[in-house]
Design brief:
The protein is α+β, with helices and mostly antiparallel strands. The chain contains one helix and two strands; from the N terminus they run αββ.
């Protein structure tokens, strides 16, 4: 995650894809949270 964050420049647009899951505290988490190429189709 740290390397992914460091690779993004300030004000650069990114698309993050993943599946939203709810944890035991009721918080939503994006799983997996990875930087993706917007041209690659995403079908969970």
């Amino acid at each position: 995650m740290k390397k992914m964050v460091e690779a993004v420049q300030v004000e650069e647009a990114v698309i993050i894809s993943g599946v939203l899951v709810e944890n035991k505290d009721g918080n939503l988490i994006l799983n997996p949270a990875i930087q993706r190429d917007p041209k690659i189709p995403f079908q969970p």
